[in-house]
Write the structure tokens for this entry.
Amino acid sequence: MIILDLPRIVADATATGLTVATAESLTGGMVAAALVEVPGASAMLQGGIIAYQNVLKSSILGVNAELLESTGAVDPEVAREMALGACRVAGSRVGVSTTGVAGPEPHGGKSVGSVYIGIALDGVAQAYEYHFAGIRSAVRQQACDEALSLLQQVVSQVREQNP
């Protein structure tokens, strides 16, 4: 298990010239807010987009509207497209996205705690599936923590390649 070190994420991203942007749905800005808590974050964080509604996922982030219509927002391809859209909109090398069901009720056939987190680096995006337990706030916090953990892994990998 990776222990989050937000100051290290900011320092390593800054040292390697990595820029980061977020595209958040269920976390509603928590990922960007966590990064902003760290002094010096302005050197790496380009910005964040809260795209809670599908129309914004499509119109701002460029997520395929037909994909949203057919699968709903809680989908790995949606998470990938959101991460790539964050990069495109903000001009960043890294994009982090969150989409899922925080509860208290299932949504679109997906159970509470179903979450996809997207991470993009230099135009290539991956999505990761999670099933978190707990109340709404716990699901959102776990999603935020996992998104930051994925960001930390990407930043660490880039840092190792560019000492």
Remarks:
- The helical segments are 6-16, 30-36, 54-59, 65-71, 76-90, 136-161.
